[in-house]
Design goal:
single chain, 118 residues, mainly beta, four-stranded antiparallel sheet, 57% strand
Length: 118
């Protein structure tokens, strides 16, 4: 069992930045690939980014070059730095453990709201 708690969401103007954090507890964190997904109103949940336990990263095309995912295994935390935010980035962002072979999520956090105003 893994418990995930997200933080760092909020309201920001277009072009601004936010950093989301996901603190993990439970089973051995460093062995998990971790990821972020998001769900906008009226839309399906979609993949944003993932990072392997050794730090290899993957990004959805719509965020590549603007978002950076990192992890600190000692602090059992992953960070999603989001720059050049756009109104279409508005969504609830969820942290999850990830099967890196399929990008399928496993354990979920409760989500954190990100709102980007135009």
């Amino acid at each position: 069992q893994v418990q995930l708690v997200e933080s760092g969401g909020g309201l920001v103007q277009a072009g601004g930045s936010l950093r989301l954090s996901c603190a993990a507890s439970g089973r051995t964190f460093s062995r998990y690939a971790m990821g972020w997904f998001r769900q906008a109103p009226g839309k399906e949940r979609e993949f944003v980014s993932a990072i392997t336990w050794i730090g290899n990263t993957y990004y959805a095309d719509v965020v590549r070059g603007r978002f950076t995912l990192s992890r600190d295994n000692a602090k059992t935390t992953v960070y999603l730095q989001m720059n050049s935010l756009k109104p279409e980035d508005t969504a609830i962002y969820y942290c999850a453990t990830v099967d890196i072979a399929t990008m399928a999520p496993g354990y979920w956090g409760q989500g954190t709201q990100v709102t980007v105003s135009s």
